[in-house]
Design brief:
Strand content: 5-15%
Strand order of the largest sheet: 1-2-3-4
Radius of gyration: 16 Å
Order of helices and strands: HEEEHHEHH
Number of strands: 4
Helix content: 40-55%
Structural class: alpha+beta
Distance between the termini: 51 Å
């Protein structure tokens, strides 16, 4: 567990590098001043992006949980992943309450569909920017 990184992961780096290649450079990484400390944040547009690993964040929890119940140290892992999932939900809800747009990507989606992930970010930035421009007029 001590070797598991919580910032500057390969997934974050991969997504950030592609965002920069596409000209989206006005983001911060692992900004501690933002609730939930998103992996990537466009603070000007209040967009928070999280790059979640499938195991630790419980992707397909209904399938994973029964498998974990049969494994060694099952109680520890079930409690840990369940708490991670609840915390993710709490973070999402608080950020939404504070006016942020939240995007969550699974690690495999970033690895296999990087262009689509970047497109989601680009479209979100564009939509938020356009709505702000309309508001300012």
């Amino acid at each position: 567990m001590s070797r598991v990184r919580n910032s500057d992961t390969a997934l974050e780096k991969l997504l950030c590098e592609e965002l920069v290649r596409q000209g989206l450079t006005t983001f911060t990484r692992n900004n501690k001043t933002i609730f939930g400390k998103p992996d990537i944040a466009f603070t000007k547009y209040k967009i928070a992006i999280f790059c979640d690993g499938e195991f630790f964040h419980g992707k397909d929890w209904e399938v994973l949980k029964p498998k974990l119940e049969k494994s060694n140290n099952s109680e520890y892992w079930i409690n840990k992943i369940d708490r991670n999932r609840k915390r993710d939900h709490e973070i999402d809800q608080e950020l939404l309450f504070l006016g942020w747009t939240v995007i969550r990507f699974w690690g495999k989606d970033i690895k296999k569909n990087l262009e689509e992930c970047v497109q989601v970010v680009e479209e979100t930035v564009f939509e938020v920017k356009m709505s702000w421009d309309e508001y300012e007029e």
